[in-house]
Fold this protein.
Amino acid sequence: MLKDKNEQRTSISKLGEFGLIKHLTKYFAINNESTIKGVGDDAAVLGFNDKKTLVTTDLLIEGVHFDLSYMPLKHLGYKAVMVNLSDVYAMNGNATQITVSIAISNRFSLEAIEELYAGIQLACNTYNIDLIGGDTTSSRTGMMISITAIGEIEQNKIVYRNGAKPNDLLVVTGDLGAAYLGLQVLEREKQVFEANPNAQPDLEMYTYLVERQLKPEARKDIVELLEKLTVKPTAMIDISDGLSSEILHITSQSEVGCNLYEDKIPLDPQMISTCEEFNVDATTVALSGGEDYELLFTISQSDFDKIKGNPNLTVIGHITDKSEGVNLITRGNQKVEIIAQGWNPLQE
Amino acid sequence: MLKDKNEQRTSISKLGEFGLIKHLTKYFAINNESTIKGVGDDAAVLGFNDKKTLVTTDLLIEGVHFDLSYMPLKHLGYKAVMVNLSDVYAMNGNATQITVSIAISNRFSLEAIEELYAGIQLACNTYNIDLIGGDTTSSRTGMMISITAIGEIEQNKIVYRNGAKPNDLLVVTGDLGAAYLGLQVLEREKQVFEANPNAQPDLEMYTYLVERQLKPEARKDIVELLEKLTVKPTAMIDISDGLSSEILHITSQSEVGCNLYEDKIPLDPQMISTCEEFNVDATTVALSGGEDYELLFTISQSDFDKIKGNPNLTVIGHITDKSEGVNLITRGNQKVEIIAQGWNPLQE
């Protein structure tokens, strides 16, 4: 919202497509042994030996998934990578490579695209990911980013969504709902700014929420932690559309039921106080908010001692027989059926 | 251009995102042994054993890469897959899986997206490809398609762009320039139709050109043919941006020069006659037209006898020392330096 009007602006057409790709990717190093050939040929070449390959992809559209009036391009690049890595970690895998395709209208300068790639590069460096290819093209309006992430995993370590069994414990990482509230805070500030362009945004009270929205981290650390604790989840998914939606994916694919306890859902104090300020129910936000990129998984009860007391992991419920349904057990000890209310981009 | 006004129209929002994905992918079978888990989890799981994995991706934007006023959606789906498979074949590999991400505005009905997927499915069936994942989202305007193709190859069979050596022969498959001319024909018919909506397009004289534009085939058959002939190219690339641009990729990455003979470039008779009609130079169209999706490769002279007389393969030049430059030898025996004039989406 606070934009430097004097920023440098180089037209992209000067470079041409291949020049642009070369320019943007030249400082991306190759660090994974499995990357045999990255950017620069018809296809990248990967070698995974005895391991299995994981592939996942996400498409982000300006005006649908992000708003550049409060999402800095560097953060956007970082987040676009996180969204994809999160899916690889949700398989219990190790993310190793990405391809990045972007479409941009002529309102974006070279400097703007460099910012985007700076965020992509920071994500690659932090998570040890090799950029191996992509496509760069023009769009008629706005920006689109399509990323495909590739990972590796040993066959016996793969965790699908469909392995949850009755009596398994339901575990979530981190805390929930903050990313959604961060978006609400940013949307409100945008409206204030549009009404009065001299207003200075005061986000100090919301730093955690805004960071969760603008710079989420995929939970690679959890995959490593579970390995260290010798815990293999029976089912796992990442929380992109909201807790309720993800629970329903696990229970429907595993053909089980679930009891989720409202009072166990981990919430950050800033999230709770901001829910009060916005007059929204914190549980509803945690259930339906989305974009947390935490991991939700089920473990056998016999593994409980291994995770007990770990500050990253919270047991929020347990798996039941399918016939018992999927329920939220409220603070008042009422049983309420969980219905998907996750963010649905096709029903705006 | 001739649209049935009474076509059925089902709103996509009725299905929701997961309903839509399920609906669109339910008739896609899994045929490749390397596909362990396809659509339906956080990531797909692939297993390639001792082979190397190939990855390539392309992004197609409405109004930039395709015009739905003359590109039927089924053809668009088919072509979007071909564009990606072509890159895998250009590595001498076997394409095995794709992910498909689409963004669509609310002007598209379910029936329209089904048409798109019918084309994708036809491509998958014809080329033995498994659809293993993707993303489906809304766009503010128009349609975008992002496809990532994955393939497999034995290490010793990989053909990069950088292996051409002086005295190698330069070989091209099929014929060139027809896809570009097909586009010109369709653009002209669109203008006629816009001026007079009752005009019936007469494309009979241009069937080959239009088919090359609307329904290109990736040259999987050539990879199989080369295997059968026991010819391993020293360098290979697919022709998406035009012959001159691709020759320059091979020569610059291989650090060699090249002499290309104008009179050897394979042209279809319909292409030649239509060039006359449009008053454009056939050689220029072949050099700069693009979208042919033929393969361009170099082979050792000692392999010449193996390919001699094959109607699919035409020797169009030979590799020289870098110092000799990259030249077109004209029919009049003049030497003209080749400069890239390939289609550049960032310089419209």
